[in-house]
Every structure is written in C-alpha cells, then in structure tokens.
C-alpha cells in the first residue's frame, strides 16, 4: 500500500521528503490544495486534516471535498481551533504575541471553526461524527494533554459508513 501526502506548503513537502528518504519510505507527495492535488478517483482509508481547516478560505467546501476522497469504512481526523473568546486570548494573544510560539498573524479568529460548523460540513460530505476531544497545551513546559474542554483546540474523528454490500476495511 502506497501512502500519499498532500500539503499546500512546498516547504512542508520538502521536509517530509527528506524524512521519507532517510527511512527509505515510498510516499506519493503532492503540493496543492485538495481540489488541485487529488484526482477524482483518489480514495484513502485515513485522512488527516490537522491544523489546516482554520486556514482555508472555505472550510465547508474544503471538508466536503476531502470527505469525497474517503473510502467506505474510512476515518477522517480533523484538529482545529474553536471560535471562542478563550481561543482568541489563548491562540492569538498568548501563542502569537506573549509566548511567540507562532509568528504574529498566523491565525485569524474569524476563521476558527466551531465544533458544530465542522460537524455540519463533515455530515454534508456523507460522514458521521465518531468522537471529539479537547487538547490543552502549556507552552511554558511544552506539555500537551487531552481534555473534555473544546473551547480552544480540539480534534474530531469522522467515519464514512460502509454500504451493506461492501466489505469493511
């Protein structure tokens, strides 16, 4: 089975290619957004949309298009930042201006994604919510942990159902 990796940032692809070369891994790297980098017949068992949906122009369209490429029985994981007052203070003021763990201007609060917005987009793409968890990060100690609190960072998992006549993966 050949793995594929799609990223809109050429710099990320270059780093990933170096790592794959060290491990002698055969990975299909593609630069671009989902619509441009994937072919109509590309389907995957797992899709990882990690810290990306809060940066795209049309989150609903992006998630629906990604979901179109998920195989029946497949899993899609999406991590992002919730659009709350707490996330503004934590992810923008704290991370970008106080602790400077991210460059200023990395995030736009208006593009943060509420859990119900993400779920609606995934459901429009034919997916079903499996689970969601909050993530907390303490930059001073560089420690992270799972939580039930979705008010800042969270991850959601979605699955595509299997038709009655299709084998499960």
What would you note in describing this structure?
It is a single chain. This protein is 30% helix and 32% strand. The chain is α/β, with parallel strands linked by helices and 169 residues long. It folds into two domains: 1-32, no CATH class; 41-160, Rossmann fold. Strands 3-4-7-5-6 form a five-stranded mixed β-sheet. The chain has a two-stranded parallel sheet with strand order 1-2. α3 (59-67) packs across α5. The longest helix has 14 residues, at 85-98. The two termini are 13 Å apart.
Helix fraction, binned, reads: 25-40%
Rounded average pLDDT:
92
Number of strands: 7
Form type = globular
Count of discrete domains: 2
Major sheet characteristics: 5 strands, mixed
CATH topology of the largest domain: Rossmann fold
Features:
Rossmann fold; alpha/beta; single chain; 169 residues; 2 domains; five-stranded mixed beta sheet
Topology readout:
Layout: E1 3-7, H1 10-22, E2 27-31, H2 34-37, E3 44-50, H3 59-67, E4 70-81, H4 85-98, H5 115-124, E5 127-138, E6 143-147, E7 153-160
Parallel strand pairs: 1-2, 3-4
Antiparallel strand pairs: 4-7, 5-6, 5-7
Helix pairs in contact: 3-5
Task: Produce a short descriptive summary.
The chain is α/β, with parallel strands linked by helices.
